[in-house]
């Protein structure tokens, strides 16, 4: 592990204890959205049949939490442990079906299903929906990959189905393709290169 990677992990750990400290550090930063892009086909199909999953309206209760990094980390880890990762073809007999992975013993899904499940559980726990958005990245080894991103006072943190903990968006091994707007989840944008 490089010194910079170790420093970033230390800062992220401190962010879980002190969001104000992490917010002041430039390593943890925010994704900048660029030009509008077309939303993924599976996302568009999901929104046509389940519009509540494509909204910033809280699904239950009211949005009272603003920066609970422990809650975000707990939900990320819990969903990653609980959901059995499985392709849509294997689960549903067809490709690119975006649907939340679920909470029961039979919870299963691929990357976008897991990201959707995390978003639902965080919103139900009180995290403001406009601080949660899906993002698509690419890695040669795995291809296209969908993650949930939480916009916190500490920067944008990735909740990835492939890793256990939260990570700053710049520290994940993906080339970013695009992300949802937090304010209008039906709109997708490219991610500015900096």
UniProtKB/TrEMBL annotation:
Keywords in alphabetical order: Signal
Superkingdom of origin: Bacteria
Keyword Signal attached: yes
UniProt signal peptide: 1-22
InterPro entries according to UniProt: Transglutaminase-like_Cys_pept
PANTHER family noted in UniProt: BLR5470 PROTEIN (PTHR39327:SF1), PTHR39327
Protein name as catalogued: Transglutaminase-like cysteine peptidase
């Amino acid at each position: 592990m490089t010194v910079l990677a170790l420093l970033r992990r230390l800062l992220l750990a401190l962010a879980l204890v002190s969001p104000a400290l992490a917010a002041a550090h430039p390593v943890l930063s925010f994704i900048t959205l660029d030009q509008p892009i077309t939303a993924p086909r599976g996302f568009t199909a999901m929104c046509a049949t389940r519009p509540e999953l494509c909204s910033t309206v809280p699904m239950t209760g009211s949005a009272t939490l603003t920066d609970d990094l422990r809650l975000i980390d707990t939900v990320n880890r819990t969903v990653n442990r609980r959901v059995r990762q499985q392709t849509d073809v294997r689960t549903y007999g067809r490709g690119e079906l975006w649907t939340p992975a679920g909470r029961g013993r039979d919870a299963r899904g691929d990357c976008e299903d897991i990201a959707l499940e995390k978003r639902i559980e965080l919103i139900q726990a009180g995290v403001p929906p406009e601080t949660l958005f899906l993002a698509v990245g690419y890695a040669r080894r795995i291809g296209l990959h969908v993650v949930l991103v939480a916009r916190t006072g500490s920067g944008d943190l990735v909740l990835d189905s492939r890793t256990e903990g939260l990570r700053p968006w710049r520290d994940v091994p993906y080339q970013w393709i695009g992300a949802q707007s937090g304010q209008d989840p039906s709109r997708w944008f490219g991610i500015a290169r900096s």
